[in-house]
Amino acid sequence: MEEQATPRLLHARWLGRIAYRDAWGLQQALAAARAGGDLDEDQLLLLEHGAVLTLGRNASDGHVIAPPELIAARGIEVVRVERGGEVTYHGPGQLVAYPIVALAAPASEPVRPGPRPLGVRHFVEALESAMADTCAASGVAAGPRAGHPGCWVDADGPIPRKIGALGIRVARGVTFHGIALNLTTDLADFDLIDPCGMPGIHSTSLARERQRAGVPGTDGDPAPTTASVAEAAAIFAVALARRLGMALAGDLPPFADAAEERRVLEALVGRLSAPSPAMAAAGAR
User: Fold this and answer.
1) In a domain, 52, yes or no
2) Is 263 helix (H, G, I), strand (E, B) or coil?
3) Which of 136, 148, 168, 179 is deepest in the core (most CB within 10 A)?
4) pTM confidence score
């Protein structure tokens, strides 16, 4: 009898509001452990950041168009990171998702029957589609735009509007960084930058597009809320796992405890980063 293929697990973790550099450090540690075979499950970090601007490794500083003194006065940090893409804004009311996914099985893992390893193109398409699925769940039609990574409303219309950004890094066959989907985000903050290095781009949010579509009781520019992010995080996680053909594990909002999940994840990263007894003994010689 043929051995039944076991779906790969994608472990979702709702972390709530977390500082950008803290999440960045968690990503790097998890990606290194996944590539090295010390972590046997793909991870999906779901969260929200305070206001921060990040630039991809080859991004132009010139796409941060606000004066440095204005950015500093508003307490917004500018961080250059190792992902692809140009400048991106993260802030309250925006879902950020960081998938730590092995596109090819680490060498330490046994060969199992099942789907072939993921390709970068398939992975990117899955992220874009999961963002579109999340928008569709709230009555907003969105999708990819040829030549422009991310998620767009009216992509082929006269005024395409960007609702979701995408920028990943693949190192040793493992992805990190990910997506940012505007929900109740303060869109005025996008005036600080040329989003994704595109002057004149129109940024939008789920709240604004719901109002544009005439959804009853919708405020187009509500105050950003973590509750809106938590609700979208649960939808996005299910959609991404489905798009990747993976089984989803972990607690999702409203059942997830963000503080406890952060504690568990930090403890896991601490164990993964600790030297093995053999390494410690070798170092003591």
Assistant:
1) yes
2) helix
3) 179
4) 0.91
